[in-house]
Specification:
mainly alpha, 5 helices, elongated
Length: 132
């Protein structure tokens, strides 16, 4: 497994688990049956950190939608290139840090971490477009 593939898998695994904290909060706030019920305007609001975790998870899913196909193409078209692995690592750590600082409510760090992940995707795409 290449470094790019490794960090793509880590990113996907993170996304598969990132919903757990805010769902646990939902169960604590609304009870198990309230968490399992259909959402309604009368629902008791979740904790502010859990609301931020939910929004962070949505943003990261959107980031991954752009990164994943680029990663797949880079794995196929540039299997021996080293720089896609570094971009994969930057994407994963940018995304992970984004989630953490978003949950903690640190706005500037949140934006910087998001930019690292987003720019990693852009650079990976540009690498594919300019490969010779």
């Amino acid at each position: 497994m290449s470094q790019l593939q490794f960090f793509t898998v880590l990113s996907a695994l993170w996304l598969a688990l990132a919903w757990v904290p805010y769902i646990l909060d939902r169960i604590l706030v609304r009870g198990l049956m309230g968490a399992l019920a259909n959402p309604s305007p009368q629902d008791k609001p979740q904790s502010p950190w859990a609301q931020r975790a939910h929004r962070a998870h949505i943003v990261e899913v959107e980031l991954f939608v752009a990164f994943a196909p680029l990663s797949l193409l880079a794995s196929i078209l540039m299997p021996t290139a080293d720089h896609p692995g570094g971009l994969g690592a930057a994407f994963f750590f940018g995304m992970l840090i984004h989630y953490i600082v978003y949950v903690l409510g640190i706005p500037v760090a949140r934006t910087a971490a998001f930019a690292v992940a987003a720019i990693s995707s852009i650079l990976l795409g540009l690498s594919l477009l300019t490969m010779g």
